[in-house]
Amino acid sequence: MHKILIFTFIFLFSILGLNSQTLISPSNEIELVFSISDRGEPLYNLYFKGKEVIKPSTLGFEISTYFSGFSFTKNDFLSNYSSDFRLLQYTIDSYDETWSPVWGEESAIRNNYNELFLELEQESTGRRLNIRFRLFDTGLGFRYEVPEQKELGHFIIKNELTEFALTGDHMAIWIPGDYDSQEYDYNTTRLSEIGSTFDVAYTENVSQSSFSKTGVQTSLQMKTDDGIYINIHEAELVDYSTMHLNLDTNNFTFTSWLTPDAIGNRAYMNSPCKTPWRTIIVSDDARDILASRITYNLNEPLAIDPSWIKPIKYIGVWWEMITGKSSWSYTDDFKSVQLGDTDYTNAVRKENHAANNENVKFHIDFAALHGFDAVLVEGWNIGWEDWFGNSKEYVFDFKTPYPDFDIKELNDYAHEKGVELIMHHETSSSVRNYERHLDEAYSFMNEYGYNAVKSGYVGDIIPRGETHYGQYMINHYNYAIKKAAEYKIMINAHEAVRPTGIARTYPNLLANESARGTEYQAFGGSKPNHTTILPFTRQIGGPMDYTPGIFEMDISKLNPYNGSKVNTTLANQLGLYVIMYSPLQMAADLPENYMRFMDAFQFIKNVPVEWSKSIYLEAEPGEYVTIARKDKNSDNWYVGNSNGYEERISNVSLSFLDTNTTYNAMIYKDGNDANYSSNPQSYIIDTKFVTSNDTLMINTVPAGGFAIELSPMKK
After folding, report:
1. Active-site residue among 31, 519, 552, 623?
2. Residue 519 is a catalytic residue
3. Against a cut of 0.90, is the pTM above it?
């Protein structure tokens, strides 16, 4: 690691005026210009290879020092915290280190940036505001830091006024700025079309007050007409509310729009304090967007002992409930099974209750036979008869099983087989109830040998009026992660906020859902190009528990009342194990479906969940992604591809392989007659010997893909 203090007159920093400075990235390809307008407004703009990508954009806040209990009106205390500033002083640092993640897409990450730190003072109030910019070779991160000061102690952020002024009507890949869900299919439109594309379908099940008509969520992926890719997101979301972006279609300027709380405030702050980082990744090569590690690098270093954390490949008692084949609840009559009541004399068990001893043992046996680490079991605990839509605070206690789930017997059985069970905590979004039970629930997990939990936050948040992405819930999610670390428990959080690199600091956060996952293939289906978009959007902040590996695409064969179809080919499902990176990977389909295609299932059994190196071979958002990754624990390489709407030939250069080495390539690809709608299970498995001099030409059908395992031949 090298850290060098750079003074004002060195080459990285040039004075353009008293209130204007320039910062250059380590590669000299990206340039940041900071200035202060005649009105004292802090401004920044950004250039890539000499082309402007962010026009001069304002920075700052609208704040209030009003808190309830005073007799004054709120408007009397609104204050502009975005103009009338002067620059007091500045410093520049250069930083270069390489750090090793506990798990990840590579075994080493370089953190190299130049930093500009500005100390500002508002002349009319004497209030101070600092802004820190970090310029990497792949983009920019910046945040606000409010120093301790007598002029400003406790305050409320009414609006964050950060702008991202774009240079034109770019193509954008976006979902609406909903405060409670990211589980949408993505739209690909011009910026000018966002308002008109915002169809009523988005508001059918969501309150009109829960998002703005021209609001979008981050990570937002865009492309200019001259081929520059721009990605806007945030990093280190701690003690703050989630940022959405509101678009002014007259000038193509996004302004940060923070998730409000129940009474409309955005965040409650107390100096000294800081905001999350706002990030802009930029390149003329889409592969650089995927390779950028800005989000992780802007988070704090490791804060816990990670020796007990391990990646997991698992199966589960899950898909059968998602498709409607089986049930989470034990009985149809919730009145006869009250929380905490162990007298089930009058309770009639459902024939299709999935979390029963026999079914769980079958999954444990299947996992042990095929080398899986764990089995997730949902619907094991009482409360499912009364959990959804009733705005009920006390539903689950997270420790009382249904009578057909013998928790000690099943955990003993699993451990004897070398398999672990993954706990499931559905909170029904009753956050107060979950926090009251956390210590007891985690202790219960320790007692029975669980070391990982899938948590869920389905439904409206309780306390009522709060949303999934406000400051209140951000603090809860982070609290649960830290509390879990105390008990050496790994977290897989569903319906929580999209990740922002927090897993660098707390790597026991193995994965999040926080997007439209595979479950939606059983809820009517997702767009055929969905997984060519997620690596550029949802996965910018961290791994997703996407739950791939569906082999039976016709859901009606599991449940005749469900006519959904999985909109991919089987070969595409295999490729997702490389494309959709996660240290927590699920083989989501039913064991009996894997038994029908054992030769294809072999790839899922073999593919690792830990990588030492990743190479992004080809990528275009919404069209195709091909990634090669090297196993962290062997010399094997794996390649995955997901294709979008158009049939294409993928040219896979194997130049990443070790020279002077011959590899056995096992290639799983779409069959000649494969069709994601009518013939998705058509696939071909080819084997051949290859070297680093070879290029593989592989045809992919719409919503198709391929997977390759490359094993060096023994000498």
Report:
1. 519
2. yes
3. yes
